[in-house]
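User: Structure please.
Assistant: Input sequence and predicted structure:
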Amino acid sequence: MKKIKVGAVSYLNTKPLLWGIKRSKDLLQQIELIEEYPSKIADKLINGTIDVGLVPVAIIPKIKEPHIITDFCIGAKADVASVCLFSEVPAEKIERVLLDYQSRTSTLLCKILLKHFWKTSPSLEETKANFLHCIKGTTAGVVIGDRALAQRKISSHIYDLAGTWKAMTGLPFVFAAWISNKKLPEDFIQYFNEANAIGLKNIDKVIEENWDDVYDLKKYYTENISYTLDKEKLKGMKKFLEMLSEV
């Protein structure tokens, strides 16, 4: 049987979702798991080299036949901690923003917040690898994932993008969801959904295997990130996708 190609992000925030997937013998017989950073997984899903991915939600309109296949996501009801605008100066004094090349959703969210929340218009610059040392003076940067958790110890001004979105809209934010680019077998979807839930029921074990002193992972997994894709998160996702036309 041809294996279903599954793309996932190789960040700390995905470890609870992947924990059960990597331990499900039935599921592992059905999938080929590919781990990369968000924008690479997104490209693979768009061009069809994978069948399903935990992808930035901003790419949903670019997929010909998108299907949300699980009850889980990478979301936040308030501050997410690992997706932030970092700066040495207050938001109103930022003149240039470096946009993290690893995530389209986060950079688009920042553009929306700059326009509608902070009401500023700094110059925006796409980046490649190794841009963090350029965050200084009036140059700020959008940083995501594990590098953002480390950057929290460096930058004096930290603007959490999920928390700011909540302040502006009153809605939670969804950064990534499990999306397929075709209809998948129902039995696979059931196995996959159940496997996602296993890690969330074993957070202490996930933390033990992925311990890192850069940030309190118990807080990260239970307070910052909200993994359930509920109705309020779907409302927030719909609002975000509607606002994309404005940036």
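The CA atoms of residues 131 and 203 lie 32 Å apart.
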